[in-house]
Design a protein that fits this description.
The complex is a heterodimer of chains A (129) and B (179). Chain A has 129 residues and is an alpha+beta fold. Chain A has one domain (3-115): 2-Layer Sandwich (Alpha-Beta Plaits), CATH 3.30.70.1350. Chain A is built from 3 helices and 6 strands. The mean pLDDT of chain A is 83. Chain B folds into 2 domains: 3-70, no CATH class; 91-170, Cation efflux protein, cytoplasmic domain (Alpha-Beta Plaits, 2-Layer Sandwich), CATH 3.30.70. In chain B, strands 3-4-5 form a 3-stranded mixed sheet, covered by helices on one side. In chain B, a hairpin with a 2-residue loop joins strand 3 and strand 4 (122-131). Chain B is elongated, with a radius of gyration of 27 Å. Classes of the chains: A alpha+beta (129), B alpha+beta (179). Chains A and B meet through strand 5, helix 3 and strand 6 of A and strand 2, helix 4 and helix 5 of B. Strand 6 (103-115) of chain A pairs parallel with strand 2 of chain B.
């Protein structure tokens, strides 16, 4: 696992990829219109076994001073997808930069699916009551 | 599903059926099956080729079906929206479910399936619908085109080039009026 390393007079500070992933994942799910992160089959199985995976659907590349983030998300039905994606990019960039001090060069958002809320899914009122 | 797949599945079903019938008749106490096995064993010299062929066939079917089951559906691709902070990509599968949602919420559409593509930065939608007979089809098709175009442009933010609607069939019978 590679880590971001910073040198200060007192010693080295390392930030693990996992930390950046969790920060990015939380920042992304915070945004309104995001139904959740979309992990692969493996993380789905892990989740069924009861492991909460905070970095699901997040892939990061962390260098010495910079970081790049890839996010796989599922959006709620009814939102404007590009707007949500742009908000995610801003929010993730802000969160990662302020919490880790790394410069975020890019945040790629992959929208994998749309989530239809069960409660709102009433396409037609019954004609007879 | 391709013809080949159908054929192999039918073959597998037949093999399973034969095996099941044999096992059941054994359980029911009918020894004819055992007798058949005896005959085969006795004539082993002659039946060897046949039994080898049957075994080979069964094994091949098994391998093929396993491969088929393990095969993932091919991903339909993505729509890419480049941006300053990084790319946004929207999987066509997500757009597909939006299109289906928009189409099937229209009165007169019973079922819809769709296939999406991209041409010169525009989205193309091929819809196949099963309609009910409560509305004139041209009117219905026009509404489907309008709604799908508007919905996708609103939600995905990508221009829609064309929406072709194919009416696959007209459903007989009425929707349940009371739930």
């Amino acid at each position: 696992m590679s880590n971001a390393a910073e040198r200060s007079d007192l010693g080295e500070i390392r930030i693990a990829n996992e930390v950046v992933s969790i920060v990015a994942g939380l920042a992304a799910t915070e945004v309104e219109g995001v139904a959740g992160m979309s992990g692969g089959i493996a993380s789905g199985v892990a989740e069924m076994l009861g492991r909460k995976n905070l970095s699901k659907g997040v892939r990061v590349e962390v260098g010495e001073e910079q970081a790049a983030v890839d996010l796989s998300i599922i959006v709620d039905y009814g939102v404007r997808i590009p707007e949500v994606a742009w908000k995610i990019q801003e929010n993730v960039k802000r969160a990662v930069e302020s919490m880790t001090g790394l410069q975020v060069v890019e945040v790629n958002v992959h929208v994998q699916g749309v989530h239809f809320a069960q409660a709102e899914e009433q396409p037609e009122d019954p004609r007879v009551k | 599903m391709r013809v080949m797949d159908r054929f192999v599945i039918a073959l597998a079903a037949l093999l399973a059926l034969a095996f099941g019938v044999a096992a059941l008749s054994l359980a029911a106490g009918w020894n004819g099956v055992l007798w058949a096995v005896d005959v085969i064993m006795a004539a082993r010299g002659a039946a060897r080729l046949e039994s080898a062929l049957t075994g080979l066939l069964a094994a091949a079917v098994g391998v093929y079906l396993l491969a088929l089951a393990g095969q993932r559906e091919t991903e339909p691709g993505n729509i890419a929206l480049p941006g300053e902070l990084g790319d946004v990509s929207i999987s066509l599968r997500a757009v597909e479910s939006l299109v289906l949602q928009a189409a099937s919420s229209i009165r007169g559409v019973r079922e819809a399936t769709t296939r999406l593509g991209q041409e010169e930065g525009r989205l193309t939608v091929d819809l196949s619908v099963l309609v009910t007979s409560e509305r004139p089809v041209p009117e219905l098709a026009a509404e489907v085109q309008q709604r799908v175009t508007r919905h996708v442009q609103d939600v995905v933010g990508v221009p829609v080039g064309r929406v072709s609607v194919a009416v696959r069939n007209i459903a007989s019978g009425h929707k349940a009026r009371v739930e």
